[in-house]
Amino acid sequence: MSETAPDCIFCKIVAGEIPADVLGRNDHAVSIKDLNPQAPFHALVITVDHHDNAAASAAADKASIGHLVALADEVARESGNADYRLIANTGTGAGQTVFHTHLHVLGGSPRMSETL
Ligand code: 5GP
Ligand code: ZN
Where, by residue number, is the motif Histidine triad motif (predicted)? Predict the structure, then answer.
């Protein structure tokens, strides 16, 4: 049984209760297109289990971040973006708005999305 949190939008996307453009998945992570893209290619890679941020996921299971990075690389390459940028905002002061572990995967131009 996966860990979920009530009223978490990413838990609902992982469960298929809210629609999203799914780019790929593995047993531990789901990748979707970001609703509000900040780069020519902008995907999110979301953990299946609910934790507030990447550090909390790593504290629960160090391998969880490895699964995220592996799926990020897969979806980036499949979309023709072998060069890409990964971002994990942690805390409101860093711009985090959804408190369920995710990586932003940005591709398509160098040094894109300094604002993310
Ligand atoms: P954060 O600001 O927490 O680092 O990133 C959250 C990201 O989730 C934002 O880039 C935002 O556009 C994206 N987002 C928020 N709600 C949804 C949604 O319902 N569907 C999708 N596909 N992306 C979302
Ligand atoms: Zn969640």
Answer: 100-104
Ordered structural domains, the chain, with CATH: 9-107 (3.30.428.10)
Is ipTM over 0.85?
yes
- Active-site amino acid positions: 102
Which ligand lies nearest to the CA atom of residue 21 in the structure? 1
According to the model, what pLDDT value does residue 113 have? 63
Distance CA 56, CA 100 (A): 10
Quote the CA–CA distance of 8 and 12 in Å, as a whole number.
6
Distance between Cα 46 and ligand 2 center (Å): 9
Atom of ligand 1 at shortest range from CA of 87: 4
**CA gap 94, 47 in Å, rounded:** 19
From the CA of 54, the nearest ligand is 1
Q: What is the pLDDT of residue 1?
A: 46
